[in-house]
Amino acid sequence: MIRDITIGQYYPAKSILHRLDPRVKLVSTLLYLVSLFLFRSIAGYLVATLFLIGIIRLSRVPFGYIVKGLKPVIMLLMITVVFNLFLKKEGEVLVHIWRLSITTAGLRNAVYMAIRLIYLIIGSSLMTFTTTPNELTDGIEALLNPLNKIRVPVHEVAMMMSIALRFIPILLEETDKIMKAQQARGADFESGNIIQRAKAMIPILVPLFVSAFRRANDLAMAMEARCYRGGEGRTKMKPLRYKGRDRAAYVMIAVYVAAVVAIGRYVPLKIWIF
Amino acid sequence: MMDMIQTEKLIFEYEKRDEDGNVIGTSRAIDGVDIDVKEGQFIAVLGHNGSGKSTFAKHLNAILVPTDGTVWVDGRDTKEPEELWNVRQSAGMVFQNPDNQIIGTVVEEDVGFGPENLGVPTDEIWQRVEESLKAVGMLSYRHHSPNKLSGGQKQRVAIAGVVAMEPKCIVLDEPTAMLDPVGRKEVLKTVQRLREEKKVTVILITHYMEEVVDADKIYVMDHGKVVMEGTPREIFSQVEKLKQYRLDVPQVTILADELKKRGLGIPAGILRKEELAECISSQYTHGNRTGMDG
Ligand SMILES: Nc1ncnc2c1ncn2[C@@H]1O[C@H](COP(=O)(O)OP(=O)(O)OP(=O)(O)O)[C@@H](O)[C@H]1O
Ligand SMILES: [Mg+2]
User: Fold this and answer.
1) Cβ contacts of residue B145 below 8 Å, gap of 6+?
2) Cβ-Cβ contacts under 8 Å for A269 (sequence gap 6 or more)
3) B106 inside 8 A of chain A by CB
4) Hey, where are the domains in chain B?
5) Residue A244, min C-alpha distance to chain B (Å)
6) Is A271 inside a domain boundary?
7) Cβ-contact B43, B202 below 8 angstroms
8) Tens-digit pLDDT profile for residues B41-79
9) Residue A105, domain member (yes or no)
């Protein structure tokens, strides 16, 4: 079950998006996410949708695979939608059920919020689908490098991230093994109320932590044995260098943001209440 | 020949601590070890669980420094702080658990980790990575995730990671202990190939005696001391003593020893099946002939 989560995973394919510099993808994703909150009209959503469709096509990641990544957040989505639907009191009342009513403003808000959240998730998962964990940490390290001056340990944080990413699958597998071992001894994780279930997790967490600490210890030793001594004096096997396509991508994302803001704010398109 | 590794009266004590972290005593894990390894040699260290093999291995890479006595690696005293990185570069280390020593999320990036730490220029890192992966026969897996490899393949990647640092000496601490027979063979073959092609000095720590029949010299450790040393033949001929140190003597060697005790003219220290078969068959034909003569 845990393995079905596709958010944050890499999808190997040969696309222009996969080849882009991770810094470009990080900055663009951030800009895209911010851009979703810079307008409040259907014209803006049309531009954002077209852009997203274009990016999905470019990424060569199957649409079904992307949609699958939305599954774990469906609950969150529903809750947001319901809250927006019923809590907004302005505008004309559309439906009246018991003590609750849905107004035009509520419906508009709910739909916009849902779209924003979905685009937010798709946008950021497209970045992780097309960028290997290592490229991602390299990109973050490079982008945050100026913070080094105010004594933020950027290299160390990036190294921690990449090690965490390497060990997530190993620890998941281990959790699975421990759960099976405890189930074979009669442990029950499925029944009981929330407190009982939480208690049932303890026999999983304890061995998992013990093993994680052992691994951490071993790994630290292996890194030292291979002459790791922090970021100083270290060279890179895959240094980041901007190429023509990266500059083109920066221009494109800038054009998109300008367009979405301009169209979203000044094109008076209106369909029904939206 | 130059001395690659030399230890003199090496002593190491782990500190025992109580819950508050105060030292309440020491336990001696290495107790006066003198070892001498020449360049290009293949040295094996055998010993039962807890005999101090890993503790010894960690001294060759300056992960631990002696409580007393001295360790020289390629002429450098491991106790000198300024020699630390040189020592670690000249003696590479491969550990037991394949999962806990691979740092990269892609095979080639893991192999590049060591050279990156050494400050090797980018172009040369690529060259070294390619060469090392080729040397361990894992070049076609360079873009794979280490998580999807078998245990033997992971160990070969770990070996490549060490080879890429171009060490003069490789120390392997029970590299096959967690592997299946196929993985074990893979790893041993790789080590053999490295010895032939790169002429590196190899120190193999293990408790599988079958793995050390090709060694130039074997040290047997027990309770932190070297209790036996010699060529494989010299060591393997002392079956009773080996059993006393709780080592699993290979079946062939035990069988040969039993046959010898029953009066068959078999030399001591048989290492391989073929060798024993040769001995018996020559005796048999010889015996038949004398029978006919009489
Ligand atoms: N970190 C430690 N702290 C305290 N004592 C230790 C530590 N590591 C090992 N020892 C002790 O030192 C002795 C030698 O251990 P070492 O790990 O070197 O043995 P080994 O020959 O490698 O055994 P194995 O075959 O199990 O790997 C053992 O008695 C062990 O309990
Ligand atoms: Mg050990």
Assistant:
1) B105, B106, B107
2) A41, A42, A43, A46
3) yes
4) 3-102+166-239, 250-294
5) 21
6) no
7) yes
8) 999 999 999 999 999 999 999 999 999 999 999 999 999
9) yes
Beta-ladder partners of B43: B203, B217
Collapsing DSSP to helix, strand or coil, A268 comes out as coil
pTM of the entire predicted model: 0.82
CA atoms within 13 A on the CB side of B223: 3
Looking at the complex, does the CB of residue B132 fall below 8 Å from at least one CB of chain A? no
- Chain B residues lying within 8 Å of A214, measured CB to CB: 100
How many domains would you assign to chain A? 1
Nearest to B120 among A221, A224, A235 (CB): A235
B93 and A CB contact within 8 Å: yes
Classify domain B3-102+166-239 by CATH architecture. 3-Layer(aba) Sandwich (3.40)
Residue ranges making up the domain that contains A86: 2-266
**What's the pLDDT at A135?**
86
DSSP letters for chain B: --EEEEEEEEEEEEEEE-TTS-EEEEEEEEEEEEEEEETT-EEEEEE-TTSSHHHHHHHHTTSS--SEEEEEETTEETT-GGGHHHHHHHEEEE-S-SGGG---SSHHHHHHHHHHHHT--HHHHHHHHHHHHHHTT-GGGTTS-GGGS-HHHHHHHHHHHHHTT--SEEEEESTTTTS-HHHHHHHHHHHHHHHHHH--EEEEEESBGGGGTT-SEEEEEETTEEEEEE-HHHHHT-HHHHHHTT-B--HHHHHHHHHHHTT----S---SHHHHHHHHHHHHHHHHHHHHH-
pLDDT score recorded for residue B44: 95
For residue B208 and ligand 1, the question of a CB distance below 6 A is answered with no
